[in-house]
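> call design_seq(struct)
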């Protein structure tokens, strides 16, 4: 069995898989959190499969591919499809992540709704970073709680989507405690950097998100068989977003140093975790 192609679109992957089955090329479709992998079962069918793939990529809307799905029984009525999509979305949200991921997701969302409704003022508040030195260590929660504050819809949507995706992956594969350590380490490092290099007036989960980005990308590189990984394309995109923040080309205020230090903290955690795994 060998990998023929990785699709980003589920419907395209299924249509081509059905077409190969209809013409006698045995295949299997597998998916992870980022792509759908089409595997060919018999090596002797590789050349034919590659020819068919080239044709499909050139003309993906050719009716013969939809016809193949109808023949294999993979196409359902429109109403049934959307009903399945809705239930599958909820199921994916629940099962992709664990208690820690969902709890932090929910806390961030509730705090944002309180801020948006005017019930809660984020700065100053019991959740904002210390406003002066020396730090009052009796309020040590302030080192991490700014990560729970968000100030716009775009801000929280971006952060929570990436948090759910990457934190859920780490929690499911490596456990709750490992995710908590990564959350605290990258979050505190990012918050301290933003405080000392800019000001105490900031908030957001993006330092932690960049910690997860660095962690998942490098851990996947260092441990090729691990399911904790991030494709290069996503990593490059998020690096570009970070750079745009530093050159001030984005239409929103960005905690740039929190992003950068969070990323570095995640990379460091990936190295340390990989070394510990080798000695266990």
């Amino acid at each position: 069995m060998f990998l023929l192609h990785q699709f980003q679109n589920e419907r395209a992957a299924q249509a081509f898989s059905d077409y190969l089955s209809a013409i006698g090329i045995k295949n299997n479709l597998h998916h992870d959190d980022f792509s759908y992998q089409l595997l060919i079962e018999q090596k002797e069918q590789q050349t034919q499969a590659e020819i068919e793939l080239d044709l499909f990529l050139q003309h993906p809307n050719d009716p013969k591919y939809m016809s193949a799905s109808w023949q294999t029984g993979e196409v359902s009525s429109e109403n049934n499809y959307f009903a399945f999509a809705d239930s599958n979305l909820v199921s994916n949200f629940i099962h992709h992540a664990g208690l820690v991921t969902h709890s932090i997701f929910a806390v961030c969302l509730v705090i944002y709704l309180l801020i948006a409704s005017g019930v809660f003022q984020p700065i100053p508040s019991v959740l904002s970073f210390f406003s002066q030195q020396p730090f009052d260590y009796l309020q040590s929660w302030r080192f991490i709680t700014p990560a729970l504050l968000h100030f716009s819809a775009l801000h929280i949507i971006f952060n929570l989507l990436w948090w759910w995706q990457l934190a859920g992956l780490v929690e499911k594969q490596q456990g709750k405690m490992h995710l908590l350590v990564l959350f605290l380490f990258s979050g505190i490092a990012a918050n301290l950097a933003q405080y000392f290099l800019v000001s105490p007036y900031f908030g957001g989960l993006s330092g932690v998100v960049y910690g997860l980005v660095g962690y998942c990308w490098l851990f996947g590189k260092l441990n090729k068989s691990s399911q904790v990984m991030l494709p290069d394309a996503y990593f490059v995109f998020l690096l570009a977003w970070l750079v745009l923040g530093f050159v001030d080309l984005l239409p929103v205020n960005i905690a740039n140093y929190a992003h950068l230090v969070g990323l570095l903290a995640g990379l460091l955690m990936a190295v340390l975790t990989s070394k510990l795994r080798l000695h266990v």
